[in-house]
Amino acid sequence: MRTVGFKSLVGATLLIGGGFALAQTPQPTTPHSSPPAASKPDMLKLTLTDEQAKSWIDKRVFSSDGKELGEVAEFKRAPDNTVLELHADIGGILGIGEIRVRVTPAQFQLVKDRVVLNLTEEQAKALPKVSNEK
């Protein structure tokens, strides 16, 4: 009786173990294909309502290297609320000496309570300048 139980246990172990071995069999690899066009940064579509856009004004802007650069000044949007560009006031101290730069949607992310650029501090300072007069 004890032998039958042991044989059953060994058989079950081999059966289960064989399943794991099959699961670990490497699959043939294929070359990695490029991501679909919709995931490319230049294809991003960000939309904000008037209320949402206003809620981001004066939020802090950070570079990809973690440095606080300034704050959001405004969003330029299309009639369908698609964000065309973000204007940020960067540099300066207490608003003196700051410059307003143009940032495309592919160059930033809205993260919780801040805007994070996909650019370093130096790259951000080289962004196209815009007039902060309306």
Principal-axes geometry comes out as globular
Q: Count the helices. How many?
A: 3
Strand content: 25-35%
The H-and-E topology, N to C, reads as HHEEEEEEH
CATH classification, class level of the domain at 41-125: Mainly Beta
| Residue-averaged pLDDT | 77
- Known CATH architecture of the domain at 41-125: Roll
Structural class: alpha+beta
Looking at this structure, what is the CATH superfamily of the domain at 41-125?
PRC-barrel domain
Main attributes?
134 residues; alpha+beta; SH3 type barrels; six-stranded mixed beta sheet; 3 helices; 25% helix; 25% strand; globular
Q: What would your notes on this structure say?
A:
- With 134 residues, the protein is an alpha+beta fold.
- The chain has a domain at 41-125: Roll (SH3 type barrels), CATH 2.30.30.
- The protein has helices at residues 2-23, 50-56, 121-125; strands at residues 60-62, 68-77, 83-90, 99-103, 108-111, 114-117.
- It has a six-stranded mixed sheet.
- Strand 5 (108-111) and strand 6 (114-117) form a beta hairpin.
- It starts with a helix and ends in a 9-residue tail after the last helix.
- Mean pLDDT is 77; it is low at 9-16 and 18-42.
